[in-house]
Amino acid sequence: MFRIALCDDVPVYMEKLESYIEEWACQRRVCVNIEKFLSGEEVLFEIENSGDFSAVFMDIELSGMDGMEIVRRIREQNRRVSVVFVTQYAQYCMQAIQDYPVQFIEKPVSAQMVSDALDHIADEQKSFFETFTFSFDRKIFMIGLADVLYFVSEKRMIRVCMEDGRELFLYRKLDALEEELSDCNNHFLRIHQSYLVNDRQVELVCPYGVTMSNGEELPISRKRKEAVEAFYYNRMGKW
Questions:
Q1: Beta-strand pair 32-37/2-7
Q2: Strands 131-136 and 139-144
Q3: Residues 52 and 164 in one domain
Q4: Distances from the Cα of 144 to the Cαs of 34, 91, 180, 216, in angstroms?
Q5: Do 209 and 191 share a structural domain?
Q6: 120 and 138 housed in the same domain
Q7: Which of 60-74, 83-97, 116-130, 221-235 shows the lowest mean pLDDT across its residues?
């Protein structure tokens, strides 16, 4: 079941979007529950009253708080909500890198745009329940990959930095771990010889580093700078 919020102060846009989502759900044989809101404040109120949405399709320019601020508040409570901005204003896309990971579709929306966005959301939601098992010091650990901030190579060991502040360790070469994780739903990006980061935990991408969801800044090596930039530009769409 996907619980999806649509937020736009123009009802006709939401009705069209709703019809495309229902069409996608029918084709994929997925059950969806769609709720429509005319303001971001209504979305926040509904989350407080009845819990989180799986995904939010959010207009950016709204009366009251704008869509960017609403998404920031939603993500403060639950980083696992998938976000799609629906907008006519491409200039906002550069600003929204701070709210990564998000998707953008431009108005007027088409069935194909919505279908592509929902396929991506379905993949995102799968990743939230993916686990990784390893042993260290005669103990077996099973962790949620979505909760990993990054892996960092330290001499003969790898330190695993978790979203909740825990630090775990395993004996592995980072190259081997990168290969092992390459087929996972969660995507880990090599930004440096020593760092493998969870791309969903990245808050901000700069020319020489990334800022993680916990505020920690990690370096991008000169060798990998071009590949990292290409990945994020491709993920965010053309600006």
A1: parallel
A2: antiparallel
A3: no
A4: 28, 35, 15, 20
A5: yes
A6: no
A7: 83-97
Q: Residue 14: left if φ>0, alpha if ψ -120 to 50, beta else—which one? A: alpha
pLDDT above 50 (res 238): no
Two tokens, residue 6: 């649509």
> In sequence order, which residues have a C-beta less than 8 Å from that of residue 4 and are 6 or more positions away?
21, 32, 33, 34, 35, 53, 54, 55, 56, 57
- Dist. CA 102–CA 85, nearest whole Å: 7
Tokens of 131: 């686990």
Q: Which two tokens stand for residue 192?
A: 């440096």
How many domains, in total, are found in the chain? 2
Domain CATH code at residue 50: 3.40.50.2300
Q: Which of 71, 2, 63 has the alpha carbon at shortest distance from 31?
A: 2
Separation of alpha carbons 201 and 27, rounded Å? 31
Q: Which two tokens mark 86?
A: 């629906």
Within a 10 A sphere around the Cβ of 206, how many other Cβ atoms? 10
Strands (E), 99-147: 103-106, 131-136, 139-144
On whether the CB atoms of residues 113 and 105 are closer than 8 A, the answer is: yes
Q: Check whether residue 109 and residue 9 sit in a common domain.
A: yes
The model's pTM is 0.64
Tell whether the model's pLDDT for residue 188 goes beyond 90: yes
How many beta carbons lie within 10 A of that of residue 77, not counting itself? 11
Residue 172: CB partners within 8 Å, gap ≥ 6? 134, 157, 158, 180
The residue type found at 92 is Y
Using CA atoms, how far residue 12 sits from 15, 22, 58, 110, in Å, is 5, 15, 14, 14
Q: Which helix (H) or strand (E) holds 51?
A: none
